[in-house]
Every structure is written in C-alpha cells, then in structure tokens.
Specification:
With 220 residues, the chain is of the alpha+beta class. Helix content is 36%, strand content 26%. The chain has one domain: 3-Layer(aba) Sandwich (ECO RV Endonuclease, Chain A). The protein has helices at residues 9-24, 37-55, 106-112, 178-215; strands at 60-65, 75-79, 84-93, 102-105, 118-130, 133-143, 152-155, 161-164. Strands 1-2-3-5-6 form a 5-stranded mixed β-sheet. A 3-stranded antiparallel β-sheet has the order 4-8-7. Helix 1 packs across helix 2 (37-55).
C-alpha cells in the first residue's frame, strides 16, 4: 500500500518543525484565567485550524475546518496525491500528570479505513506553560497506523475506543504498515470483548442478587 508523500520521513519532519516554529512565534494567546489544559488545547486547535493549510503549502488542495466536537476530524484536507486526511489535534502539557486521550471508536475507524485513500492523522502538540507563554517542545504528525500498539489501549466505550495509554510515551513505528496495524487491532479486540463479556456477566450476577434481596423484603 502506497503511503502519501506527505509522510515521507524527511517531509513530515520538516512539517513538524514548521508547526513547532509557528506556534512558538505566537504571542501570549492565552490568559492566566484561561490556562487550563482544556483552554490551551482549544486555543492551539483554533490557531492551527486557521493556519495549518499555510504550513502544508504545496501538499494540500482542499481544506476544511469547523467540525462539531464529536466529529472524527478537527481538520480535514485532500493532499496533492488525492489522499483524504482527517486530522485529530491533541495537546499535551509535559509537566502535568499522564493522561489517556481518546483517538477514535474502533468501529468508526474500521469503516473509514475501508478505503486505502483515507488517512486518520494525529497532530500531537506537546508543550510546557510559563505564565501565559505556551512553549511547544515537540510536534508529532503521523497517521494512526504508525503509532505503536505498545503505547495504545482500548477503552470500554461503545464498540471500544482507541486511546493513547500515556501521552508522555508515544512510540512511532515509521516502517509499520496499515495491514499489520489493523490486524493487531483485531487481535486486541478478540481479547478485549471476551473480557468485557466476563465483566458484564459478573455485574448481571451482582444485580440479580440485589434484586432477590429486594424481592425478599416485606412490602411497605
């Protein structure tokens, strides 16, 4: 399967550095009253929505932003080779406790990846914060299938939610393939679903006992 030119190692490294340089050139775009990770994340996402197409200049032909919060994409574009990208922008404060950001539903991803022309990309902005100055330390721009399963997990939401296990530890396998990654996803789910069934069976048993206890009580 052909990978977009956009993700050739030398090209993507230049783009990552360009995003980092651009964000670090922005002057105090948050206030002391709005310096929570959520506020910083919203501000960074807004700035990138307005400017990512310029940073991608020469690699993008159609570009869209302004999606609903529950949508799969924060940014979407078609590159010059015709591949369609949806980009999930994540921010991570480096001097905070570890977090486990959600990426996408396994069912939604399986449908989206029925087409080899589709790419779900992560744009991870890792930063530190000094007063109102956001200092970007690292930028990762990568399709989800290059994120190692060593640092991903499945969360129990709906069909299952792919999560980064710890945003402080993001491993990228630049020589990986979509086929290998999707097969690993299926293997993880073959372990995940039976474990969820066992949990639900235990919960049913617990509340059957609760039900019987209430049935045994005298009527008021």
């Amino acid at each position: 399967m052909k990978r977009p030119l956009l993700f050739e190692r030398n090209v993507v490294e230049q783009l990552q550095e360009a995003v980092k340089t651009f964000l670090n050139a922005q002057q105090d775009f948050i206030s002391l009253r709005a310096s929570s990770p959520r506020s910083v994340g919203d501000a960074v996402q807004s700035i990138l929505e307005d400017n990512f197409a310029k940073i991608l200049a020469g690699h993008v032909q159609d570009y869209s932003t302004g999606f609903a919060r529950r949508a799969m994409a924060d940014i979407a574009f078609q590159d010059i080779e015709g591949f369609y990208h949806v980009v999930d922008v994540k921010t991570h404060r480096l001097n905070s406790d570890f977090n486990m950001p959600n990426l996408i539903s396994v069912e939604r991803l399986s449908r989206f990846y029925e087409s080899d022309e589709h790419y779900l990309d992560l744009l991870m902005i890792s930063y530190t914060l000094e007063a109102t100055q956001v200092l970007v330390e690292k930028v990762i721009f990568v399709p989800i299938e290059l994120i190692s399963w060593q640092c991903l997990t499945i969360g129990a939401l709906g069909w299952g939610q792919i999560q980064i296990a710890n945003a402080n530890r993001l491993l990228i396998e630049y020589n990986g393939s979509r086929k290998q990654w999707m097969l690993q996803l299926c293997e993880r789910l073959m372990e995940f679903y039976p474990a969820e069934i066992a949990k639900i069976t235990n919960r049913i048993g617990h509340f059957e006992k609760v039900r019987q206890a209430w049935l045994a009580r005298p009527d008021e």
